[in-house]
Amino acid sequence: MRGVLYLAVAILSGFAVGLVHPKVYVAGDAAATAQNIAANEGLFRLGFLADLTQSACMLLVAMALCLLFQRVNKNVARAIVIFAAVSAAIQCLNLAPHLAALRLATDSSYATAFGPDGANALVLLLMDLQHSGFLIAQVFFGLWLLPMGYLAFTSGMFPKALGVLLMIACFTNLAHLPFAFLWPEVGTMLTPFVAIPTTLAEVWMVLYLLIRGVKVPKQNTQVSVPS
Predict the structure, then answer these.
(1) Chain-centre distance for alpha carbon 217
(2) What is the pLDDT of residues 68-111, one digit of tens each?
(3) What sections of the protein cross the membrane (predicted)?
(4) 92 to each of 31, 36, 55, 70, how far by Cα in Å?
(5) How far apart are CA 60 and CA 22, in angstroms?
């Protein structure tokens, strides 16, 4: 079940962030962004649903991992849920600009009220806000990888190399964010490189859960990790 839920997170977020968002959002071009949303209304709505669903699935994954790891270190296991819950909450709130941009781009009454250029500018502003909200959520997405990686490394349930890679992914995500906010062009250039450890770690985690499964210690076996 953990593997299936984690796979759902990967597929749904990949669809929303990797397919829908790049197809409609043109940074700095209000008219093109509004036209793309209007021309791909169905896809844009599917992107909303995918984002909402993956946020719920992410929280369920965190809870499942917490139950798995709590015998190793309860406090660190709970940190997985806390960081995932904050990230999921931000992502859900971040969908409000998504819906507002859709309304503006597809309802002609807004173009009448604000004028075509004004309505398009508002659409771009909302999409810019959603992009910034996504980056804010990435802070806590990055942080949830740290306790997950630590517990994967120390528990004996996963390969130690996977735990190390998850922790590296945490730090690369966090290191990328100052560039994304302070120097957006540099942040955009770094994004493909930052995505490498995260993608490798999460694909490995999903495949391991689905194919190999975890070696859960017996109830009377104590893992030598301080609680």
Answers:
(1) 30
(2) 999 999 999 999 999 999 999 999 999 999 999 999 999 989 88
(3) 46-69, 76-96, 134-153, 162-183, 189-211
(4) 26, 23, 7, 27
(5) 27
